[in-house]
């Protein structure tokens, strides 16, 4: 990294860390105030009044639960809005990543809220109904229901939900597509389609992923990952003078329409293939299936413990529910509060496992002969995203699901030397 890029990434990391600290502190204070002031039973009471006004009495607990859930998510969206605005239009804008207008931001936020409610409310209603009628073994039926829902959502997300927010276009015929298809065939990956998503209208950060089950796998590449397709490269004025280029590099040229940078965004075809080699390594090595199995084992355990604890009246009394024991409130208390220490430990274990998977996927790309290209791609993507390469080992061990850049480069460097 040149000195200028290093300094820009350092300042970006400082801004993100400060934002994470203050937003996290606010979240803790808000949650504590809600608990101490009886916010949860108050909102449940308000939900009952609204439900009763609509013609549903206290016996319609599911209806009241849905009103409660709607109000709770609305409150969360409203209180989180200033933080989201600051992150997008101050921090991301300051460092040259934000591509959204204010109108686009609010339109996107409203659309996300509506889509979330369209999925969340029916699923919650069915889950509560299953718990109500499931008898002694309701936790098995509830777990099976959430398993089916999660698999369905994973299947339909990229085809029906994601296109509501971003434009997906098939990767044009050409050398890159042919090379991707050849690599997929070489490792028996059942690729059916390759898409490019216009992520550049939202942010200049880059990404790639695959999805699908069985013989219907698809690859999605962000246009910001592809040097030849990135709209940010196409927007760069070819006749821009050196003065405007320097301003763009220093982060002071953000008022220019193109937000020009001196270097092209994204990776070359060989580097894109190396990144995909890493992603497909997760599939070939069974990481995706392992994560699903671990997730479902944890889900089953949580529903089982919920079945054990749901009958304890003292749990509801502790949170201000003296006369009623609503199922949704039981889910909230047990899953969000009672399980919180367990969730922290589990999260750390999954972080350790994720880092191990990342090293294995890098090694898989190396076995495909992509070590050199992945090495350069990781450096280029780190620069494009202003990733700070220096990490405290304790902090990164707890927080980072991916190994620090220097550790990954060292592993690849050793591989290349071998």
Concise structural overview:
The chain has 16 helices and four strands.
Task: Label this structure with key terms.
418 residues; 16 helices; 4 strands
Low-confidence runs of at least 5 consecutive residues: 237-262
State the strand order across the main sheet: 1-2-4-3
Mean pLDDT: 86
What portion of the residues fall into strands of 2 or more residues? under 5%
Domain CAAX prenyl protease 1 N-terminal: 2-167
Catalytic activity: Hydrolyzes the peptide bond -P2-(S-farnesyl or geranylgeranyl)C-P1'-P2'-P3'-COOH where P1' and P2' are amino acids with aliphatic side chains and P3' is any C-terminal residue
Function: Proteolytically removes the C-terminal three residues of farnesylated proteins.
Domain Peptidase M48: 170-414
Describe the structure.
It catalyses: Hydrolyzes the peptide bond -P2-(S-farnesyl or geranylgeranyl)C-P1'-P2'-P3'-COOH where P1' and P2' are amino acids with aliphatic side chains and P3' is any C-terminal residue. Belongs to the peptidase M48A family. GO terms for molecular function: peptidase activity. With 418 residues, the chain is mainly α. It has helices at residues 3-36, 39-53, 61-94, 102-133, 138-161, 175-186, 231-235, 242-249, 269-284, 287-309, 313-318, 327-338, 340-367, 371-384, 393-399, 405-417; strands at residues 168-170, 191-197, 208-211, 217-222. The protein has a four-stranded mixed β-sheet with strand order 1-2-4-3, sandwiched between helices. A hairpin with a 5-residue loop joins strand 3 and strand 4 (217-222). The model is unreliable at 237-262 (pLDDT under 50).
């Amino acid at each position: 990294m040149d000195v200028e890029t290093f300094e820009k990434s350092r300042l970006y990391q400082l801004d993100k860390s400060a934002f994470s600290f203050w937003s996290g502190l606010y979240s803790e204070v808000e949650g504590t105030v809600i608990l101490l002031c009886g916010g949860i039973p108050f909102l449940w009471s308000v939900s009952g009044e609204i439900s009763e006004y609509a013609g549903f009495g206290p016996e319609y607990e599911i209806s009241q639960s849905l009103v409660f859930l709607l109000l709770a998510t609305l409150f969360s969206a409203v209180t989180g809005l200033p933080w989201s605005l600051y992150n997008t239009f101050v921090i991301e804008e300051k460092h040259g990543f934000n591509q959204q207008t204010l109108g686009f931001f609010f339109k996107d936020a409203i659309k996300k809220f509506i889509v979330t409610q369209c999925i969340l409310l029916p699923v919650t209603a069915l889950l509560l109904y299953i718990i109500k009628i499931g008898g002694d073994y309701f936790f098995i039926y509830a777990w099976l229901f959430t398993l089916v829902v999660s698999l369905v959502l994973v299947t339909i997300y990229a085809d029906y939900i994601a296109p509501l927010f971003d434009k997906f276009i098939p990767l044009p015929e050409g050398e890159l597509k042919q090379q991707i298809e050849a690599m997929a065939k070489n490792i028996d990956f059942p690729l059916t389609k390759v898409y490019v998503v216009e992520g550049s209208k939202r942010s200049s950060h880059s990404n790639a992923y695959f999805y699908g089950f069985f013989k219907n796998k698809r690859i999605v590449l962000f246009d910001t990952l592809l040097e030849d397709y990135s709209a940010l490269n196409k927007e760069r004025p070819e006749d821009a003078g050196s003065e405007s280029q320097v301003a763009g590099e220093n982060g002071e040229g953000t008022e220019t329409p193109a937000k020009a940078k001196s270097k092209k965004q994204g990776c070359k075809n060989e580097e894109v293939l190396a990144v995909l080699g890493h992603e497909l390594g997760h599939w070939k090595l069974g990481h995706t299936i392992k994560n699903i199995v671990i997730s479902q084992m944890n889900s089953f355990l949580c529903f089982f413990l919920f079945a054990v604890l749901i009958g304890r009246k003292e749990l509801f009394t502790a949170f201000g529910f003296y006369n009623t024991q609503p199922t949704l409130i039981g889910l909230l208390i047990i899953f969000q509060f009672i399980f919180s220490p367990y969730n922290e430990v589990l999260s750390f274990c999954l972080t350790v496992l994720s880092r191990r998977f990342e090293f294995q996927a890098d090694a898989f790309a190396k076995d495909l002969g992509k070590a050199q290209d992945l090495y350069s791609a990781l450096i280029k993507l780190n620069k494009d995203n202003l990733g700070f390469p220096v990490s405290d080992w304790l902090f990164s061990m707890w927080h980072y699901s991916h190994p620090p850049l220097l550790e990954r480069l060292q592993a690849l460097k050793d591989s290349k030397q071998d």
